[in-house]
Amino acid sequence: MGFEDKRIAIIGGGLGGMSFLNAALYAGLKNIQLYEQAPQFAEVGAGVNITSNANRVLDAFGLQESMTRKSSRKLPCYMEYHNYKNGEYLGHIEEFSQPPARLLHRAHLLDSLKERVPESCLNLGKHLASIERNTDAGAAPYTLKFQDGSTTEADIVIGCDGIKSNVRRDMGLADSPNYSGQVVYRGFVDYKDLPEETAQLLRKTVNFRGPQRHVLILPIGNQETGTDRAAIIGFMSETLDSWDSESWMSRSEISSLHEHVRDWCPQVQDIIEGLRKGSPDGRMLKQALYVRDPLDKWYEMKSGQKDSGIILLGDSAHSTLPHQGQGTCMAIESGIALATILRHWKNDDLESAFQFYQNLRKPRTDRVTQTSFEAGKLASSDSPDEMNNTFNPDALSERMKWIMEYNVLEDLRAKGADVLDFHDSRL
To answer: Cα separation of 60 and 82, whole Å?
Structure first.
């Protein structure tokens, strides 16, 4: 039975929306369109770490070669920790799950997600203004109205439009996001702009852990494609009084980051100088980190119809802080879960399908939200000079194993045995 022929509208063309579109095409949903408010596809930010739990899904889509071509190669470990004052090595976490983590530019991941998507599915410059719930006999369940005056009709609406989701707002969810107490500075350093010893160090994933702040370096890209450089991500505690932008994202003077780390080790000073060499205007991205409390319900149904509804996916439903690198990974997992459920549901009761999806995903995404908050506290400690019982390689590996070793496809098969019909599935 399922909902393979229903008109499905995806709102949002970032990593979450494009991940769901790939999942929908892979699962065999036949009538699907994506609407992105920007005039072109683009990802703002620095590097992204896609861990094994999400790579298993992307590999199923056939994206392994594309991602690997754009990712850093043969990293010696998952994460290495160094003292912020003298730069000394503190310890490291081995890569403990397969396929290994892939580190690449966010825009390059978006490029990979676009490769297998027909242009006919993509609609740019479509900023959602409202969703009209139609009551006239014979009318489509939903009419989506965009700011450019255009409209489209849909049976099912998937809100993949992030933590500031317009779909979420249209559903009447008026809760306010919570400021985390941290901002994140994001930029890039070319290895040629670093002293050789520092450049070699930063060809690994390195974390300089300081008091109430830390600087994370992700080696993204590779020499073969000429894209290898270090993504610099600085997590700093700041009060809202110091935030001078109405947006959560702005460009800030590199000197603002430097003020936080002025007395840190020589390697961090090398990073600051490398950022300055690579920035024409002496600025870098700065973002205030917000997160929403977990939602009790991720969907609404069309009144009087059992096969039409609206549902949230990714940050619009389960936003999380970036301290475990799982925001995009959770959206990838949720995307394949929802697409598979819509395609292979045994009856035409969409509400029961939506509820099954939420029951499958919500315990995991709620736990990721909580543990990501905890991981941020551990990474920016009051006493960062050394490892301890809660912050050491073994403890940190154990904190992450349940995330990385999870297989959403296996979970779907096990928990969906009675409600999903997989007889013609590619899974």
So the answer is: 36
The span from the CA of 397 to the CA of 399, in Å, is 5
- Residues 256-314 have pLDDT tens digits of 999 999 999 999 999 999 999 999 999 999 999 999 999 999 999 999 899 999 999 99
pLDDT tens-place string over residues 365-401: 999 999 999 888 877 766 777 777 777 778 888 889 9
Paired residues of 315 in beta bridges? none
Q: Which two tokens stand for residue 95?
A: 């890569």
Cα dist from 319 to 196, 213, 288, whole Å:
38, 21, 14
Q: Which residues pair with 286 in a beta bridge?
A: 185, 250
* 162 three-class SS: coil
Residue 43 has pLDDT above 80, yes or no: no
Residues of the chain with CATH 3.30.9.60: 178-291
Q: How many whole angstroms separate alpha carbon 47 and alpha carbon 188? A: 9
- Under 8 Å between Cβ of 344 and 418: no
Comma-separated ranges of CATH 3.50.50.60 domains in the chain: 8-72+100-176+293-416
**CA atoms lying within 13 Å on the CB side of residue 2:** 23
CATH of domain 8-72+100-176+293-416: 3.50.50.60
Number of other residues whose CB lies within 10 A of the CB of residue 122: 18
**Which helix (H) or strand (E) element contains residue 344?**
helix 327-344
Tell me how far apart the alpha carbons of residues 163 and 171 are, in angstroms, rounded to a whole number: 14
Residue 116 · residue 22 · CB < 8 Å: yes
What are the structure tokens assigned to 36, written together?
């992105």
What CATH class is the domain 178-291? alpha beta
Angstrom distance (rounded) from CA 58 to CA 361 = 18
Q: Residue 42: what pLDDT?
A: 79
Amino acid 207 reads N
Q: In this structure, what is the dihedral angle of CA atoms 161, 164, 170, 171, given to the nearest 10 degrees? A: 90
Pair 340, 27: CB distance under 8 Å: yes
Query: Do you know the residue count of the chain?
Result: 427
Say if strands 102-105 and 89-93 run parallel, antiparallel, or are unpaired.
unpaired
Question: Looking at this protein, which amino acid is placed at residue 50?
Answer: I
